[in-house]
Write a structure and sequence with these properties.
Layout: E1 3-5, E2 15-17, H1 27-35, E3 50-59, H2 63-72, E4 79-83, E5 92-94, H3 102-105, E6 118-122, E7 125-131, E8 142-148, H4 154-159, H5 165-168, E9 174-181, E10 192-200, H6 205-213, E11 224-225, H7 229-233, E12 265-270, H8 274-282, E13 287-291, E14 297-302
Antiparallel strand pairs: 1-2, 3-8, 3-13, 3-14, 4-5, 4-8, 6-7, 6-13, 9-10, 10-12, 11-12
Length: about 300
């Protein structure tokens, strides 16, 4: 089984496994497969219509500051749920007004193993990439937070005949560090947004904006688009994302070869890898864990439940 490291040297690697995509009908199907290490790759397109979530797991002393970070930065950090109590990896407390029950978000849950892969940070330093579970790192003092994921509006895009290119090509979405500052909260200072990118035809962007606008719990409407957005966001090279796979044309050429082409316009959304970026800038003490970017926690809750 071929495994490719697709990151750059200054960001956590993301491992993409070169195997054909499997089909899952429910979020629980994905979680059980991940728990057994039967599925270990990225989750775009899995269990269509089910919500997917980014995961960040913190020592409890940082939980209040992190909630404030999410409240002050709802576009990149929309908070869906958290551990019911510190140390609890099987029950959730919902932060969604439309889905008040944590059990309705996900039941039969083990946050330590139900993502296909995880990253680990020690004292805010990135130390482990792509591990299959975090059981040996989890303690009774840890609290997990679930952050909305833009994979959760991809079903709607596909239903509108606008499938994301990474989905069509069986690749991980491209994710970039930007120069957009996060509003600080407690210990979380000095970090910037992470964004995901999907190329589309310029003529389709108004429709794409309209479709994704209602998914506020999963980053909502795109925040920037166009080739000129690269400079505004501080992205030096569209072909070199910090996380995920490099974007390609459908005939597998680097996207940069299409610079200025209205049929290949980069479109950017807030991204739930942002909390991991915030952790690396915060100087936190202790062990922090998160999903490996693109390797999400797939939930029982349906996407339609969070539409506004």
């Amino acid at each position: 089984m071929a495994i490719a490291n697709t990151s750059t040297a200054d960001g956590p690697p993301v491992l993409s496994v070169g195997v054909p995509r499997r089909r899952f009908n429910t979020g629980l199907d994905v979680r059980i497969a991940a728990r057994a290490n039967d599925f270990t790759t990225f989750t775009s397109g899995l269990a269509p219509s089910h919500l997917q979530a980014n995961l960040i797991v913190l020592p409890s002393r940082y939980a209040s500051d992190f909630r404030d970070l999410c409240a002050r930065n709802p576009v990149p950090c929309p908070l869906l749920a958290e551990s019911y109590v510190p140390g609890d990896f099987s029950r959730l407390k919902s932060r969604l007004h439309t889905v008040p029950s944590g059990a309705k978000i996900a039941a039969d849950l083990d946050l330590r193993s139900d993502c296909p892969r995880y990253n680990v940070y020690v004292d805010s330093k990135f130390t482990k990439d792509g591990v299959f579970n975090i059981q040996s790192y989890w303690t009774s003092d840890h609290i997990a937070f679930l952050i909305g994921c833009s994979y959760s509006f991809e079903s709607a895009l596909c239903n509108a005949a606008l499938p994301p290119r990474h989905f069509v090509m069986d690749r991980n979405v491209s994710m970039y560090r930007t120069n957009i500052p996060l509003n600080p909260a407690g210990v979380f200072t000095g970090a910037t947004y992470v964004v995901s990118m999907r190329p589309y035809k310029k003529a389709d962007i108004p429709k794409i904006r309209a479709i994704t606008r209602g998914y506020l719990a999963t980053h909502g409407e795109c925040l920037a688009w166009g080739w000129d957005a690269l400079e505004r966001l501080g992205i030096a090279d569209i072909d070199t994302p910090q996380w995920g796979d490099a974007p390609l044309t459908l005939d597998r050429r680097p996207l940069s070869e299409m610079m200025g082409d209205d049929d290949h316009v980069p479109v950017f959304w807030g991204c739930g890898v942002t909390p991991q970026e915030a952790v690396m800038n915060a100087g936190l003490e202790g062990t922090v864990m998160g999903h490996a970017p693109g390797h999400m926690l797939v939930l029982d809750c349906l996407e339609e439940a969070i539409l506004v």
